[in-house]
Each structure stands twice: as C-alpha cells, then as structure tokens.
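Re: that chain you flagged

S.,

Sorry for the slow reply, it's been a week of failed gels. I finally had a moment to sit down with the sequence you sent. For the record, here it is as I used it:
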Amino acid sequence: MTNDQEEKIRLRGHHIKILWFYKRPELFDLSDDEYVERFNRECPDWKGFYSDEHLLKMRDMFRKFLENPTLKFEYIEGLDSICGMCDHEKECGDPEHIYHKMANQLDQMVAADIPEMQVGHDYDTNDILDICRKKGWLEEQTPKT
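Prediction finished late last night. Pasting the structure tokens below so you have them in one place:
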C-alpha cells in the first residue's frame, strides 16, 4: 500500500451508532487524560473495559470522520476497523467468547434500529448523522455567541 492509499474503513453496527457521541466538538479539545476521564464518567458501563490507548485511537478515528463528513466507510458484520485497534479483538472474534456474543447482540439491536442501512454498502458521516437526526438521537449543537 502506498502512502496516498488508505486501507478501507469498515464499521460494524454498534460502532456506527456511537458516531453521534463524538458529534461534540469539545471532546476533541480535551487533553488525552481529560478525554479518558470524561469517557469513563459518561460511559460507566464501559469503564475499565477499554485501555486508554484504545479510547484515544477510537477518538482519532471518529475525529477523522467528523472532520471529513464525506469520508466513506463500509457497513459490515463482524470485526471492523475499530475492533482491529482493540485489546479485545481476539476475544470478540471468537464465536464462543462472551465478548463476541455481546458485540453481535449490540450489532443486531442497531440493525433493528437502523433498517435503512444495508450491510456491504458504503456510507459516510453525513448519512449517519442524517439518520440520527431523523430518529431524534442527535441534538444539534447551537453556535456559541
């Protein structure tokens, strides 16, 4: 792969749905330590599950999408580009492991919530944010005056 080519980004359902969480510009202004603390405070069920390094890589991935809302990704089932950065990739890829079962259950819930999205198709951030707006999942940021 040359420098001007990037690996195609692939996202599974539950990673697509959390894109709206990152639609808050203040998250990208936080220091790394502040961001990790904020994630753990706002997502207490996941506190300690992800390494700090993974949380920061995930933030960088979503920053890329929000800074370039026409950047395409493929909607897939199974392990995706974010899973590939995670400490738990091996467990999530093992059909017998509880993490695999949990991730697939979350993906199935998203598929039921967003039936307009089709596995194997390409989408961009604008597509996802439009769906989130239509479903009332996204509060628009009002400009500060």
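What I noticed first: The first strand starts at residue 10 and ends at 12.

Talk soon,
D.
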